[in-house]
Design brief:
Elements lengths: L1 E10 L2 E6 L16 H13 L19 E9 L3 E9 L5 E5 L2 E3 L20 H4 L2 H15 L1 H24 L9 H37 L6 E6 L10 H22 L10 E6 L2 E2 H4 L2 H4 L1
């Protein structure tokens, strides 16, 4: 997969840019504040539909302009040449187009361009709290599985509604609470998320272990372990995971009502990094974490 040409208009500090990367390794060199990171952010936006740094999408629009525009021609062995385009509007909305055809959903852009970005803040994937690691899983899996992104969006909506209802129900009678409908939604969308996370970590672990073995000169062994909030022992299918999800909710629903929040689901998952016998987050050096 190659980015053959990148075009920017009113994006960050670029009034206009046409960049044609070489087919091999490309190194961006320049003074601070000249826009090196902005080029990487534009490519990341096309791959993930999200900004690397902006709190609001409209921050990507150059000051004084009405919209920003990012386009790239990419080449893949499977699909040949593809033209990807994102337009960012002042209302924080985005529109996307593929090969000149505007798409109804922004998520349709996912899967056409796959990237891996590593920056200083990404040390938090190992050293930070579990939310960093869940965000890493979500970003990487969404690029290769648009359905994962769809399930994640629906799960987040169900989780928000269920948590609102749990807060409203604090101290109220258990009967006819209405939680059952949201339990079904949580399990229906949460089970495929956990199945995809497990699959991804299982495939990533040997690749990461081999790379770390080479980087450490064979002195260290890296292991990754997915720790879902729902025990998946013996669960092979999404349906079996959904059943386990329901059983876990039944076990903790009383505590959830007391606390006013959901205690089960992908939002409680963890990804564990270990070097040898030690967990990398509390015991790894900064060099090992990097």
């Amino acid at each position: 997969m190659l980015v053959q040409e990148l075009r920017l208009r009113a994006f960050r500090n670029y009034p206009e840019l046409v960049l044609r990367p070489g087919s091999g390794l490309n190194v961006l060199v320049g003074e601070n504040g000249q826009g090196k990171s902005n080029i990487l952010e534009a490519i990341y936006l096309l791959a993930t539909t999200r900004s690397l740094r902006a709190g609001r999408e409209s921050e990507l629009i150059q000051h004084g302009e009405q919209q920003a525009w990012v386009q790239a021609e990419i080449a893949t062995e499977r699909s040949g040449q593809t033209l990807l385009e994102v337009t960012i509007l002042p209302s924080d909305r985005k529109t996307v187009a593929i090969n000149g055809s505007r798409r109804a959903r922004v998520l349709e852009l996912l899967g056409h361009l796959v990237v891996v970005f590593f920056g200083a803040l990404d040390l938090g994937i190992v050293s930070g709290d579990p939310s960093h690691r869940r965000r890493f899983l979500n970003t990487e899996i969404s690029q290769i599985s648009p359905k994962y992104c769809f399930d994640l969006a629906n799960y987040k909506r169900a989780l928000e509604q269920r948590n609102r209802l749990l807060r409203d129900l604090m101290g109220m009678p258990v009967a006819n609470s209405g939680l059952e409908a949201w339990n079904d939604q949580m399990a229906a969308y949460g089970a495929p998320i956990m199945e995809k996370r497990r699959f991804f970590v299982d495939r990533l672990t040997p690749l990461a272990a081999e790379m770390h073995h080479r980087l450490s000169g064979g002195r260290e062994v890296l292991a990754l372990r997915y720790l879902p909030s729902v025990p998946l022992n013996g669960c092979e299918s999404v349906e079996e995971i959904a059943q386990a999800f329901h059983a876990k909710i039944d076990n903790v629903q009383g505590e959830e009502r007391r606390r006013g929040t959901s205690l089960v689901g992908p939002q409680r998952d963890e990804l564990l990094f270990s070097i040898g016998e030690s967990e990398a987050r509390p015991f790894g050096s900064q060099g090992q974490q990097r």
